[in-house]
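ingest -> validate -> predict -> emit
validate: passed (alphabet ok, no gaps, 78 aa)
predict: started
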Amino acid sequence: MGTPHDANRGGFIFAPGVGLHENIHELDFCILYPNIICTRNVSPDVIRCDCHGDRADVPDLGYSICDERGYLVDVPQR
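emit:
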């Protein structure tokens, strides 16, 4: 029951003070998500694999991610 709560850490929105701000940055996670899938091998078929059950690759959850390339990594991105 606690796994969804532990996995969904949510986000943080800063509440800036009123005034002129410089050096503001924005991250577009719609673009970053495919990159994270490819660089971290995030695919349903390799997360919590049986062959690496002794590893805890995902912090706080104890999930392992297989070294084999997942199918989602090879799905063409639009």
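The mean pLDDT is 79.
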